[in-house]
Design brief:
Metallo-beta-lactamase, Chain A; 553 residues; alpha/beta; 26% strand; Ubiquitin-like (UB roll); 27 strands; homodimer; globular; Rossmann fold; 7-stranded mixed beta sheet
Amino acid sequence: MNKNVYNIKGLNFIPIGGCSGVGMNLYAYINNDQWILVDMGMGFDGRLGKDLIIPSPEILIKNKTKIKALFITHSHEDHIGAIPYLWPIVKCPIYAQPFAVEMIKDKLSQFDLSKEVPLIKVSFNNKIQVGDFQVEFISVAHSTPESSALAITSPEGIILHSGDWRIDDDPVLGAKTDEEKIKQYGEKGILALICDSTNVFRDIKYGSEREVRKNLIELIKERKKNRILITCFASNLARLESCYCAAKESGREFVIVGRSLKKIERVAKLSGYFSEISAFLDEKKANSLDPSKTLIVCTGSQGEVNSALSKIANGIHKTIQVQKDDLLIFSSRVIPGNEKAVLDIQNSLMEKGVNIITDLDCEIHASGHPSKEELEHLYNLAKPNILIPIHGEKVHLYKHAEIARNYGIKNIVVAKDGDVISFSANEAKIVDTLNTGAFGVDGSKLIPVNGGVYKDRESLASSGVVSICVKCAKGAIRLQEMLCVGIFDESEEVEITDIKNDVASEIKLSLDGILKGKSPDKEKLKSLIRGLTKTIFAAARGKKPTVIVHLVE
Amino acid sequence: MNKNVYNIKGLNFIPIGGCSGVGMNLYAYINNDQWILVDMGMGFDGRLGKDLIIPSPEILIKNKTKIKALFITHSHEDHIGAIPYLWPIVKCPIYAQPFAVEMIKDKLSQFDLSKEVPLIKVSFNNKIQVGDFQVEFISVAHSTPESSALAITSPEGIILHSGDWRIDDDPVLGAKTDEEKIKQYGEKGILALICDSTNVFRDIKYGSEREVRKNLIELIKERKKNRILITCFASNLARLESCYCAAKESGREFVIVGRSLKKIERVAKLSGYFSEISAFLDEKKANSLDPSKTLIVCTGSQGEVNSALSKIANGIHKTIQVQKDDLLIFSSRVIPGNEKAVLDIQNSLMEKGVNIITDLDCEIHASGHPSKEELEHLYNLAKPNILIPIHGEKVHLYKHAEIARNYGIKNIVVAKDGDVISFSANEAKIVDTLNTGAFGVDGSKLIPVNGGVYKDRESLASSGVVSICVKCAKGAIRLQEMLCVGIFDESEEVEITDIKNDVASEIKLSLDGILKGKSPDKEKLKSLIRGLTKTIFAAARGKKPTVIVHLVE
């Protein structure tokens, strides 16, 4: 049997993505061969030309006929960003809250998929029956509106899939975490809690979004002169509204800069948010205003290369230029892996005389994920028999397991992507592992992250490439041309000629003999030429570049 | 005048490296055309095939006859690591403390330079006269022994060059910071303090090395079962000795693993350290011992790819294998930019069941750099007229300036690499900027970091390469062969053939006409072929690879 076709009785859980790093959330729940999926997210990895990464399509392809529905917990890219690439495989209905539906629609319109995808808006407390599964969306506070946990009732028991969540007694915009509902499920008996691990290294919960708003307003009111810029996650509507309030209270115009903020404004208004705000001011109009009368919100809090903030920092933004004594506020935290990119932006701006305030300086950010304190609060409400940590690097999942173990949860399974976890009689264990892994979205193609393409690019990146054209005729073999990319500096003309001469003589010397009277094996010849070229470069420059060989007659 | 030849009266300071990022420390002090250098360090940047980075040799080449001496503050790589590459330009005597001299010797022996370089051992309180400059080495506490600040007396006044330093009342091994001496210079009047900025974002100073030792011993004594590994900076002899003490007090054998630890052991013994320790146990002998009776110290606390720890984490170390419930202690902190590499190692080890303790869990690391508290203490002792922050990213230098400004220092200059700072009458200002920048040590060559080679590698890394061989004869032009690296997955044979056919037809269609009756311009033809190939790839795959074209007749 092909291992990625999964065919087993009872209740099973497979993290297809989401248990091998932050992002790429995609989970399957399976009961007697009926599959439902939860989330279909992208991951962030811009190395070696990847635009983004998504979970491997393989498990979905092999089991596509069994997949009955996709449930979306909330609208963040790491939960919906893979839909355009993977939904066409499964072609099942998608259930989501209204704001997430609008965000997905907006995304699909860029892929010409808007009309094909059956998107179903659900409300909290609706129960959706799909085969043996009944799914209820439960409100949770998070850094984007209408975020949900899912109560998944199966014949084998109830699973609480937490989604991304926190406890916030005053989230400003959107509902609080519905603790009462979770408690009710807890009283019925929750078989397993499948739970967010992103923020497990923090012990104490962040302040409420209300406090962040208060601090932002205060901070901005104090600064009467100069331009102020704020960067935050675009999808955090509450934070955006807080920035708007701060602008209003300090007599500044509220300006948004960056494509994803414009998209969020559009979708938010479609979903009934910001109804009392006429319109955010477009950047083009902002430039003619007194800088001390504007508050500019821009994308790029993670140092993303093409973001508005990155362009502003590098002085190449088409409308916004900063100057000495401007202020930039990072109302965000740095996602692990982005530290250097964020630092580079801060360096460039500081060189321009811009002052910078981050969440290390004052409380102007609150995470949307649960700290230890909040996790224990949830355990207490849900009283799960089993805990499976998801959504994190391995260090997060293991730390989460430790917190749960210390709390007293006995049955904890730390899984990796592709693991098949089977539930039975209040027990869970890994019974198998399917092939999965990440694929790079690379231009318009999907390429396996661990395959040959990225390995080859890694070599190209580290040592450059030599392309060699060799003429092979009448028993003689001669170098015609040698071209190099990513090896020689412009000043090294002499070195290029020297090495080219070495390669030419070595080809003549070593290979003429081989050719005498024989019809040569082309691939063998090419491999010999690659080998001798690498040896010459290694001796001359201490590196073995990638070598491409053309044989012409 | 060539701008990089610097010829001006009076006292000047040029950071050649060290003011545009942590690392690459290389500073010039110039008085009436007499130059002395302080430190000659490397920087860390392994991207695009760089082994390491060093400051541009250009300023040194242009002024080599004027450079009279190189003073080394201490033995860390970011202060001595560029000597093998840059000393051969200046060929001046090198003054350093005995431990640094031995470390430099060891390094030079790998470059066949041991006999050439005049290395002069100095003691604290010696005064070295070089032309108009008198230099005194002042003891400072830091994370490697015999670290120094330099009091540089010139006809224009006294400059205190801090080196890397901290205040530690019980550094365990090596001397404390000689506050009395600094105070004496302060009383004479210090014109300028040129000062370490690495740790400016910390307000309060770290505990002493003695406390770290106490905590390490306690932590290790508690764990009676299983193997314990510790990773720390190899050159921190005090920390190594602390690990040794912890091993002894807990009845474990002390084992070191990794090339740089073996080197440090050798050099330390040469310099009279560890004399009471017979010998550290080599890893080969450790494998036969009961894991619960060993304490293994290994390199790799920054997630370096070829370090012992990285190999252990990936299960490819030749002698050390970890197993469930082993413990790894990070007695270190993560240098900005290395977060993801360290996280990847932690992920791999956790997957093997290894428990991990870092300096976030308990106080098992102390930085060797000054916090705000220590900086203010130094200002108070030295009472400098001028402050120039060095050794940091821009964010560090500006934060340092803010601390100094708030303390009350009036004349502060935040400079970048290449800036010429001129001192006169208790004032300092940037009067010029020379060309500098980083060079990559790339195999056996030096390549400018901002030049074409790394730009080309960036493109290769992001989109791969197509090499095309085109035959051009009798007025007809035909594709002979198309080879691709870093573009197609193994499964894409059909796609390769399709695109090859497209390129072949397009070449025939667009270029045959151009050739009719004319003798073609080779470079123009190549450029047209590159263009049309890129267009075809962009349409088919959404990416424009690097294209190499061979024209044969």
